[in-house]
Amino acid sequence: MSGEDGEVPEADSLDARLAAWLAQGADASERAELEDLAVSDRAELARRFASPLRFGTAGLRGPEQAGPAGMNRLTVRRVTQAVAGWLHQSAGAAARGVVVGRDARHGSAAFADETVATLLASGVTVHEWPTAGPTPLVPFAVGALGAAAGIMITASHNPAADNGYKLYDASGTQIIAPDDERVEALVGRPAVAAGAPGAHQVLGPEVLARYRAGILARFALERPSRLRIVYTPLHGVGGALATALLAEAGYPDVTSVPEQFAPDPAFPTVPFPNPEEPGVLDRALALAEARGADLVLANDPDADRLAVAVATPAGWRTLRGDEVGWLLGWSLLHDPAAPGQVVATSLVSSTMLGALAADAGLRCVTTLTGFKWIARAADPGTLRFGYEEAIGYAVDPAVRDKDGLSAALALTRLADELARAGRTLLDLLDDLEDRFGVHAGTQVSRRDDAPGGAERVAALVAALRARPPAVLGGQPVDEVEDLAAGAPDRPATPGVQWRTAEGRVVVRPSGTEPKVKAYLEVVGEPGPRASLAARRARAQERLAALAASVSALLAPADPR
Fold this sequence. Notes:
Layout: H1 14-22, H2 28-40, H3 42-50, E1 59-63, H4 73-88, H5 93-96, E2 98-102, H6 108-121, E3 126-128, H7 137-145, E4 149-153, E5 162-168, H8 179-186, E6 200-202, H9 205-219, E7 229-232, H10 239-249, E8 254-256, H11 282-291, E9 295-299, E10 306-312, E11 315-318, H12 321-333, E12 341-346, H13 352-360, E13 363-367, H14 371-374, E14 382-388, E15 392-394, H15 404-420, H16 425-436, E16 439-447, H17 453-466, E17 471-472, E18 475-476, E19 479-482, E20 496-499, E21 503-509, E22 515-523, H18 532-554
Parallel strand pairs: 2-3, 2-4, 3-6, 7-8, 7-9, 12-13, 12-14
Antiparallel strand pairs: 1-5, 4-5, 9-10, 10-11, 14-15, 16-22, 17-18, 19-20, 20-21, 21-22
Helix pairs in contact: 4-6, 4-8, 7-9, 9-15, 12-13, 12-15
């Protein structure tokens, strides 16, 4: 950071940096927390000033704590002043205003209040959601109201100690460069001088009603379903709206996990509020077993992701994010196409969607990871469907981001259609892998939480780019793509992609954690149903061999 125009200065003295930070208006609790650290834990105080939170995936995310490295009221105020300055650079943007929403995490209400107050003081109109609610409602409202931006206070499925700040532009899409760079450059500048405060509108029920009506018009059933569904919002904000939508859409037999239904920022029944993590769906699966349910649906705490589990003769099976993407893709791609419509998925997701799109006569775009790229893949056309393997799905262009609520209705509609024909989601997955080949996938990762971990992760990825392996999983590496070099249809990003005769591996550093991630896929040839089990077994063998090779590459060096 520059140290100019009110920015925290670069100084040799930690105490000087602390004083400069406090002088910008830290509230009493933040001041007390930092002043206590100045006496009791200087190392922790230094850590909080060493690496301030910066814009990552369209915003900020980090632990709720005092100081520049944490989410707190002063951090939120400084960033919101920067957002106001960014909006004032565009004629009319401040008057069109900002949609502000929040989840139910610790601190979210206070951070939303700080955001609203700062925007109003800076002469920016605010359209505020009145209560905690799902993230997808913010990008929807940006489009519905013609607002200039949207801000959502959420940390999605991060641990309970975290919070975050997500920023959307006028298209209702998470911001990308150069806008994120412009906002970051304005952080710490003096507040925008406004001639008059901005107007403050608390959103009424009509905006939510428009969202509900649009989803139901697309995905509601003509007659009630016989599916028995168990649902959990994992202590998040999706429960009331998700169950209401399912009821209105024609699903009378929906049972929620009672102890996980009400928002609770402590997430007391799960070790980590991410439905992808092992064990997180255990209560929902146990309830589904007891009730003889057909389907389990789970949203993450801000309801922008969807996890799905299905009943099988051998017990419950949680579908991979890619498998749900194939099912939704197959369902949505066979509606009549309109000019300019495309589908999109990320570089680290399965290649199956490309095969489905080609079969349906639609163009499939492969983007960088994250919905800030997927949602833009069709511009200036329309995104028919987009997904990423991390259980994020965009099934309706009214929300230019992942949406776990509309995805739930799209998935249940497909499950109902199949059930009426005496079939299941698993039967359809079998059909797809018969016709387009088995697509087996997994991940390998290495986390480095010791001091300097992020730097070591970056160095490891750079070394793998410079010295790629000649063999992976017993097969020669036929193709090496340096993702940092970029491509005509894709910006540069840290990482590398390797291809063998049957598989591919994408290695990249995490954007939010000191972790290197590898995404693996093995693709087999199409074949008859009778050979499907054998083809899946072979694909899993090849995938295991590939994973063993990649694990060895990511292992820390022997210190001897």
